[in-house]
Amino acid sequence: PDLIRFQNLSKVYGSGNTEVKALWQVSMAIAPGEYCSIMGPSGSGKSTAMNMIGCLDRPSSGEYFFDGQDVGQLGEADLALIRNRKIGFVFQQFHLLPQLTALDNVSLPMVYAGISSAVRNERAAEALTQVGLGQRLHNRPNQLSGGQQQRVAIARAIVNQPLLILADEPTGALDTQTTKDVMAIFEQLNAEGITVVMVTHEPEVAQLTHRVIWFRDGQVLNDHMSPEDMRQT
Ligand code: ADP
Ligand code: ADP
């Protein structure tokens, strides 16, 4: 069974003259345990695909199955539950709350999941230790480097033990060395069994994942793209 399955999926914005086929009749699947990146030029449908995968949006036509559930048939409350329990989101700009410590930032998704504060603190500390920040629990974001802040964000993404980490340009704000550190964390989490899907513009980053899906004009132009193909684009 696939974790992610697009079946003849289209996402169309607007209508008539202003109609945009952001995704057009896309069929693809990602199995549990995969480590993928999504690439493609600006306007090719990457953000739309990420919004779809992350259950932030529903298809215009065709089907999206996440963990066996037909997302197009679910209401907002069910989509919100999937996003909170089954998906961990990581962003380019970290999106940490500046007034909260690392521990409290990582605890937040568990507040929404209704977990007691003692258990929250314990699990948040564990998640931060998992990303190498066991000594930084009580630091605020402005007391941490960019790479450390992204690791806090990754800890927040994994704290509810999701099936999927969905990362949008996770290394876009990081330097070369920090990018390697953050990619090593994704590699480690994937080795522990979490499915990881990221959008990136950086071929050096995409090459560290195990499968590169290349979008163009709202369609998958190349799945399992090789490093040679990437150098030619
Ligand atoms: P990418 O992330 O690869 O840059 P997007 O998924 O953002 O591509 O966009 C794909 C196409 O859909 C583009 O032509 C974009 O302008 C259009 N598009 C994306 N979101 C919207 C929207 N909310 N309303 C109208 N058009 C949109
Ligand atoms: P990204 O850099 O992630 O591709 P964009 O800057 O393309 O993001 O888009 C930012 C937001 O605006 C996204 O949520 C996208 O869905 C939306 N958007 C993109 N193109 C359009 C458009 N032509 N009309 C309306 N909204 C759009």
Automatic annotation (TrEMBL):
SMART domains linked to this entry: AAA (SM00382)
Organism, scientific name: Vasconcelosia minhoensis LEGE 07310
Keyword Heme listed: no
GO MF term set: ATP binding; ATP hydrolysis activity; transmembrane transporter activity
UniProt keyword annotations, A-Z: ATP-binding, Nucleotide-binding, Transport
One GO CC term, this protein: membrane protein complex
The name this protein goes by in its record: ABC transporter ATP-binding protein
Annotated ABC transporter domain residues: 4-233
Presence of keyword Thylakoid: no
Annotated CDD domains: ABC_MJ0796_LolCDE_FtsE (cd03255)
